[in-house]
Amino acid sequence: MRRTDFFWGDFAWTTRVPLPPGTPAAGRTAVPLHYAPEGRAGHPLDDAEITSVIWAVDNLPALLHALRPAVRAHCAVLRTEDEEPDGEVPTAQGPVEISALYVHPIARDGIPYVGVEFECPMDEEYGLGVLMHGTRVVDVGGADTALLLWIARRDARGPRTGLDEALIGHWSSIPFDYGVMECSEFELRADGRGWSSVANAFGEYVTRLTWHCPRPGVLELRPEDGEAARHRYAIAPAVPLNSSEPVTSVTFEESVEFCHQFAKSG
Q1: 214, 231 contact by CB (below 8 A)
Q2: Residue range 155-176, pLDDT digits in tens
Q3: Is residue 64 a contact partner of residue 134, using CB atoms and an 8 Å limit?
Q4: Does 12 share its domain with 125?
């Protein structure tokens, strides 16, 4: 990728990048990528900034794979909030489709922050946006979540007081639940928010929550409109069922969403 691949749009230097095969994008094979939608003057990109864009493009398949659970959970919450008075949940929603990418002029540990904007049939007014730091989901919300610099800056500079950084990310019980009809996931973000879910033959049930660690080895989860619960935990490598390779896992003394052991996946 070269400097001449960019053109000045209404608010940022922009190029178009191909999407990985199979990515939902309303039939498009490429989408606009905007560098520094906020917080930068209009001078051409320098070599370091182009390197950040190249990193985002090269790692786009991994980023899009990593954000899927968070998008799925967010959409599940939207469907629940859109229930009819009789409890019926609309089903003809359609898939979310990528409409734009953003690379921010800020990094943490040498990794730039990348935003992904979606067209979202379940929220046509506000859309859907995800901010990523590597394969870690920073935030999910309306479309502007993907492009707001202050969200990236808060994550990059946040002290993460009261949080065990080893817990930040996405965790799934699936590698340890081979052959089981029910599985659980949870995602803990660096701003102290997150979600948990349990899925079985009857559907998926998602709960938004906040979290912190009141002392080492203890995780406190507080669901929306619920009471806080504390869970003692230990993080260590473990070998999943049907595998020979160890993965980073967390084990709880008492279950979280009906499961005791989870593998880290983002």
Answers
A1: no
A2: 999 999 999 999 999 999 999 9
A3: no
A4: yes
- Pick from 66, 121, 68, 126: which is nearest to 96 by CA? 121
Number of domains in the chain: 2
**Residue 57 domain boundaries:** 3-157
Nearest CA to 231 among 252, 245, 257, 208? 252
What whole-number distance in Å separates Cα of residue 236 and Cα of residue 222?
A: 24
Distance between CA atoms of residues 248 and 239, nearest Å: 9
The verdict on 125 and 59 lying in the same domain is yes
Please tell me whether residues 23 and 153 are part of one structural domain.
Answer: yes
Question: In this structure, what DSSP letter does residue 166 have?
Answer: G
Write down the pLDDT at residue 85: 45
Q: Are residues 17 and 119 both part of a single domain?
A: yes
Kindly report, residue by residue over 65-111, the tens digit of the pLDDT.
999 999 999 998 887 766 544 444 333 355 688 999 999 999 999 99
DSSP 113: E
Do 108 and 171 sit in the same domain of this protein?
A: no
Q: What gap in Å lies between CA 172 and CA 190, rounded to an integer?
A: 18
